[in-house]
């Protein structure tokens, strides 16, 4: 049987709680009775009573003797009780909504506050852009779109968080986590200069959502070799324009290699040998101003001496000797190398794909050097696993970024306005092999890349562990959306966010009564399981030298002008469908009946 002192203590606790509960009802009810009684007195033409809430609740007839009993009953009893019940119901509803929302708006202790990420806030980033963009140095007013790229609002506030026009970013966001609606599309719509977008989708995606709006500020170029959007063939680009040197030809061959094999396989003998043959043949074709498709003819007939003669005539005797050594080497080795190269460049055998990268009569040529000084938009579309087709997409994106770098150097170091490069689905359709290395200097040139991946491992597959780590480290802004299912990566993020002190209260009972002690312990600000369960519409932001911040994303369809954009997107999507039907006819089932 427990000691009597414990029974006394428990009884005291119950009595105290009961008293507090009664006060929680009586105090607001008495004040409501006094307020409602005075309102009733005013409406009936009587005098108002002084502040006496207790008397209003217990003896209302003494405070308002002139009011009839029925009016007094309604005014000081029924109305206050109804008001108190209504307030309780509203409070309960708000509490239930907050609980069911999963804590979406709940601030997490230890995450960044406005002062912690001040360099990404409106005032600081506006002041900074004056030094980055000479054209805005003396402007009295600078639009928000000219200051930086909107990432979202600091969670639970109206403070906008923007990355500046010297930042480079990596976004790791799972499908349907807002990577397109909240990051890619708003960034494209508000870009002040040229925009490059890579994507593997068209209808209902960034392509259709931004096509009409970007056409109003500059020309839109669509390179669609695999007809994802069934875009009209209104441009062609010469990939050999940058292959006039051995380095340039090697870069072009590297894109075909990266599009065909993973990073882990690129160092084996056959892969390197096949890439070398491609680079030598690309160099010969570029020097002789031939179309890139001539390379496929040379690959089909290794004994053709034309590339050897071209290389020698232009002073590349060492390269010619290397090519000759491969051609005249053991047949088994030569055939294996050439077959590997054929597989890498097989997409060039497709006439529809080749038409986008060979001269076309009455079709304008896309020139990267002119694009980077415009406000045009280039859409590079390719299917996942497009092989050689995605190699051309990566090569074109690489060519544009290198042209932008050259233009920045000519302009004094930076592009003004800056160029935005949204590399959506980069690990699938834009495998630029040395992209991690480019990240170290693109931002300082006014070239702002945002590489969007579905997972960290996806990047490791393309660029290897060292390459992906280098890109992650070089990124001055990192955005992490919902859907992170990699436990190792989630734990890594949790450790980067850090720990905070948590107050722990413990209560013990003894013969002398209850005692309470308070202690402090360290706990993860955001554990790995919480990162995995990030609600859709939120994202983590890691910026160099600042605390990690939780963001509320800003999807384009909730912004002003969304109705007009949605209508334009729907119209563009219907146009894609119409072009597809015109090209292939209506869908037919297995019995040949149109559906």
TrEMBL record:
Stretches with biased composition (Low complexity): 504-519
Gene Ontology terms: cellular component: plasma membrane
Keywords per UniProt: Cell membrane, Membrane, Transmembrane, Transmembrane helix
Membrane-spanning parts: 14-34, 78-96
Origin: domain of life: Bacteria
Listed Gene3D superfamilies: P-loop containing nucleotide triphosphate hydrolases (3.40.50.300)
CDD domains: TrwB_TraG_TraD_VirD4 (cd01127)
Domain TraD/TraG TraM recognition site positions: 418-536
Classification via InterPro entries: P-loop_NTPase, T4SS-coupling_protein, TraG-D_C
Cellular localisation: Cell membrane
Topology within the bilayer: Multi-pass membrane protein
Stretches the record annotates as Disordered: 500-520
Record-linked PANTHER family: CONJUGATIVE TRANSFER: DNA TRANSPORT
Protein name per Swiss-Prot or TrEMBL: TraD/TraG TraM recognition site domain-containing protein
Originating organism: Streptomyces diastatochromogenes
Organism ancestry: Bacteria, Bacillati, Actinomycetota, Actinomycetes, Kitasatosporales
């Amino acid at each position: 049987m427990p000691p009597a002192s414990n029974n006394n203590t428990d009884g005291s606790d119950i009595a105290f709680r009961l008293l507090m509960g009664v006060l929680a009802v009586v105090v607001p009810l008495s004040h409501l009775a006094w307020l409602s009684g005075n309102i009733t007195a005013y409406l009936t033409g009587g005098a108002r009573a002084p502040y006496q809430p207790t008397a209003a609740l217990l003896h209302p007839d003494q405070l308002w003797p002139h009011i009839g009993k029925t009016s007094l009953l309604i005014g000081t009893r029924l109305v206050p009780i109804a008001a108190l019940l209504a307030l309780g119901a509203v409070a309960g509803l708000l509490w239930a909504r907050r609980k069911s929302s999963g804590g979406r708006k709940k601030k997490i202790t230890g995450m960044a506050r406005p002062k912690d990420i001040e360099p990404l806030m409106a005032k600081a980033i506006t002041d900074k852009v004056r030094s980055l963009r000479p054209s805005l140095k003396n402007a009295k007013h600078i639009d928000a779109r000219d200051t930086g790229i909107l990432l979202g609002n600091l969670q639970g506030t109206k403070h906008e968080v923007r990355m500046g026009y010297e930042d480079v970013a990596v976004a790791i966001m799972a499908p349907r986590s807002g990577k397109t609606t909240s990051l890619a599309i708003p960034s494209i719509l508000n870009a002040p200069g040229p925009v490059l977008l890579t994507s593997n989708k068209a209808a209902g995606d960034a392509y259709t959502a931004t096509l009409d709006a970007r056409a109003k500020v500059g020309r839109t170029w669509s390179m669609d070799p695999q007809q994802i959007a069934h875009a009209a063939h209104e441009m062609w680009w010469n990939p050999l324009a940058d292959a006039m040197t051995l380095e340039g030809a090697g870069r072009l061959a590297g894109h075909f290699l990266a599009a065909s094999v993973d990073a882990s396989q690129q160092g084996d003998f056959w892969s390197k040998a096949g890439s070398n043959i491609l680079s030598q043949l690309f160099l010969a074709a570029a020097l002789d101003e031939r179309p890139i498709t001539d390379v496929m003819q040379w690959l089909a007939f290794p004994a053709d001496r034309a590339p050897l003669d071209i290389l020698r005539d232009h002073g590349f005797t060492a390269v010619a000797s290397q090519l000759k050594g491969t051609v005249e080497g053991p047949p088994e080795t030569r055939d294996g190398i050439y077959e590997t190269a054929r597989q890498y460049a097989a997409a060039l055998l497709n006439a529809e794909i080749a038409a986008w990268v060979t001269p076309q009569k009455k079709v304008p040529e896309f020139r990267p050097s002119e694009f980077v000084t415009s406000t045009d938009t280039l859409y590079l579309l390719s299917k996942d696993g497009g092989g050689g087709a995605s190699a051309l997409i990566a090569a074109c994106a690489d060519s544009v970024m290198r042209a932008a770098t050259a233009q920045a150097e000519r302009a004094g170091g930076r592009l003004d306005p800056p160029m935005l490069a949204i590399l959506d689905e980069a690990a699938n359709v834009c495998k630029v092999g040395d992209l991690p290395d480019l990240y170290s200097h693109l931002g300082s040139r006014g070239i702002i890349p945002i590489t969007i991946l579905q997972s960290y491992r996806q990047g490791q597959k393309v660029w290897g562990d060292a390459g992906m780590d280098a890109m992650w480290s070089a990124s001055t802004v990192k955005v992490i959306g919902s859907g992170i299912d990699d436990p190792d990566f989630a734990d890594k993020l949790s450790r980067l966010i850090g720990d905070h002190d948590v107050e722990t209260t413990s209560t013990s009972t003894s013969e002398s009564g209850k005692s309470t002690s308070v202690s402090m312990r360290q706990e993860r600000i955001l554990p790995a399981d919480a990162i995995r369960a990030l609600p859709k519409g939120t994202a983590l932001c890691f910026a160099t030298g600042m605390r990690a911040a939780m963001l509320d994303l800003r999807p384009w369809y909730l912004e002003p002008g969304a109705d007009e954009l949605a209508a334009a997107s729907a119209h563009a999507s219907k146009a894609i469908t119409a072009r597809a039907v015109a090209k292939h006819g209506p869908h037919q089932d297995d019995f040949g009946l149109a559906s």
